[in-house]
Amino acid sequence: MIAAIGLGASLHPDFSNAGGYGIPFNIVGTATARSTVTFDYADESDAGPYPIPAKPKIEGGSDRHILMIDTNDCRLYELFAAAKVGSTWTAGSGAIWNLKSNALRPDGWTSADAAGLPIFPGLVRYSEVAAGAIRHAIRFTASSTCSGYLYPARHKAGSGLCTTKPPMGLRVRLKASVDISGYGPQSQVILRALQQYGMLLADNGSPWYITGAPDSRWNDDELHGLGGIKGSDFEVVDTTGFVNG
Fold this sequence. Notes:
This protein is α/β, with parallel strands linked by helices. The protein contains four helices and 13 strands. It has two domains: about 1-20 and about 125-235, no CATH class; about 25-100, no CATH class. A six-stranded mixed beta sheet has the order 1-12-9-11-10-13, with helices on one face. It has a four-stranded mixed beta sheet with strand order 2-4-5-8, with no helix packed on it. The protein has a three-stranded mixed beta sheet with strand order 3-7-6, with no helix packed on it. Strand 6 and strand 7 form a beta hairpin. The longest helix has 12 residues, at about 185-195. The protein is globular, with a radius of gyration of 18 Å.
C-alpha cells in the first residue's frame, strides 16, 4: 500500500501561515443563528440546521469546507462544497457530530469528507504544536484509492481492487527508526505525532499531503522541510479487529 501511494513522494504540509491555504474552522455557540442547507447528497447528509456565522471561514479551492465547533453544545458541524446564493446555503454533503460520543456515520455514508470521517479531529492545529504535542492521528490524502474502506472510515470514493490501491481509512505511521532530530521545533511535534498516532487516509488528493488549519504563526520555511520525509519512511498499521470503545 505504501508503494501504491508513492515510495518516493514527499510528505507535504497542506496548510501554512497564509489564510487561504489549509482548512480553517469556526468557533460558534448556541447564540449563532442556524441556517437551513440544501444538499446534493441529501440521503447521506444530516439535515441540520447548521450554525453558519455571518462571515464564515471557508476553505479555498473547490472543496469549500466549512467547519463549525459549537463549544456550548459540544457538537461539530461540517459542510462540503458550501456556497451561499442570495440568502440560501447549499452544499454537497454535511455531517453533525456529537463530541460527547464516539459514534460513527452509518455504514456506507459519506460525511463532509470522502471517507465518512470528521475532518476537524484530524487537522494539525497550531495550538497543539505550540503546546508541544499532537495527541491524535492526522488526516492525509492519496492520489488514487480503491473501491473499499477500513475502520474507522465508513465510505469509499475510489475504484479498483484494494490489493493494488489503498482503501479509505488506511492508517499508516512514520517508522520509529526515522531520525527527526534534525527538523525544526514545529516539524518535530508533527513528526512525533506521526510516529505515535500515525495518519488516516480520508480523501483523494495529492499523495502524502497532511491537512492542517491555517495560522499566521506557522513557520512555513521550516514546515517545507517536512518534504525530507518520503513515502518509504512510512509503514501500514494493521487495524484488523478495531471497533469503537
